[in-house]
Structures
1.
Amino acid sequence: MLRSSLRARHGALVSAMVVAAALLFASATTASAASAPTLRQLPGTASGVGVLASNDAWVVGSRPDPADQDEDIGMALHWDGHRFTEFPTPSFGGLTGGLVDVSLSDPTHGFAVGNKGIKGFRDQQIVVERWDGNAWTLSNAPDRSFNDVLTGVAAVSADDAWAVGAWDPGGTARDRPLVEHWNGSAWSIVSLPDVGFSELDAVDAVSADDVWAVGSSDGGTLTMHWDGSRWTRIPSPNLGQSEQALADVSAVAADDVWAVGTVQSGQPFPGKTLVIHWDGSAWSPVRSPSPTSGDIVTGVVAFGAADSWMVGTYFPNAITNKALTVRFTAAGAQQVTVPGKNSFDDVDGVAPDDVWTVGGGIFHNDGTGWRRVVAP
């Protein structure tokens, strides 16, 4: 869920402090989907998580290509209620990339999205992979330009899914929003109103005619809504004059949608937490803990107006990163401690006491606290 230009700059900071350390770990051998032992260490880097049930969850990211260790491909791990098992993903044909988000409408229909490109080059092309209940395969989706990214996906049903991201109109930057739709047989690019220099980071759906996408536009927040016939920009609040962006959205009902992001606070620290809520008629800011001036918010999952989780990363100082997890209940917002140095990118779950998050490994919360299930 968890990816705008602001988030990308935050990601560069996290990468410098976190991902480099993760590279010190040895990559695990690819597991056989049929007879794999319990996965204890990630074979790559986890970026997104999608949960259907307590015994049906997927984690996606990137991992070295078994056929070419110099290139990365998508990583797909499945939780069956007892263990994670790695499933093979398609090669990128000499290109390098990975998956960043995953969503399933049922156990046999789902999509993961990401990007690929020539190693060392800035230009990217989109990747969409489809799950049919047995295997992950490439699903052809059109590129809008020579430099496109997909950052979020929402599978509504077998013949209805949405993917969002950004595209480059002229060789300067990926600063135009990209939306693509799956109709059960093919992906197509969907036209949007002019929303300025913009990117979309995440998408979620209440139903086929109630879909939300969020990101950034001209340095401020961006929220867009699909009503079954067209996409419309909906006014959304900004906190102060600083650059800010929304990174994730969780849609529970027509009058209950949560979006989270970051308000930039200047170097060397990324910013402060940003949370807004849709009540059916307007977006309004929600007070949220911001432990330092170095906070990055990247994921949210909501189970109702009185219960949701927000995740990300915060920096107590310039060289230390810690996982940021906040639970919102009727009593207010409370930061929940996660031991050690971690960085969380995405969160999903089926209930407030059955939540998964990924980033510095794979973590689960059963209502008693966060526990690392798979190490980075």
2.
Amino acid sequence: MKKQLIFSLVTILISCSITIGYVELNKKKVAFIRTEYLIQKYKGYQDLEKKILLERNRYPNSNNNDTLAQKASAEILNNNQTLVQGVLNQINDFIKKYSEDHGYTFVFGTTNDGTLLFGNKEVDITEDVLEELNTEYSGK
């Protein structure tokens, strides 16, 4: 009898804890962003892609044994990686600001490796973020 009473009390406490946790989670504002789509449609990234293509076309293809060409190619690649990282940092900084301004507790990003397996369209803020991100970029 005593064990059954203790078991019942523990069960009630666990149920209350789960309920309180669920209620607290429901108070949070949660959303997700389709990350790859956002990057591809961001005007800043599109402009960067054009710039990288122009840079690549400046140097004609030459013999792979040409060390000067290899050095230039490596320099261009390194520079491009730095530029791409800069654009990704701009996007991440914007998402952080957007999330804070709109009261989000969590904003998840979808990736090709399945980090977010499902998200209801009601909490997909990709288009809203993209519109404001592109507006900010165009205003610079």
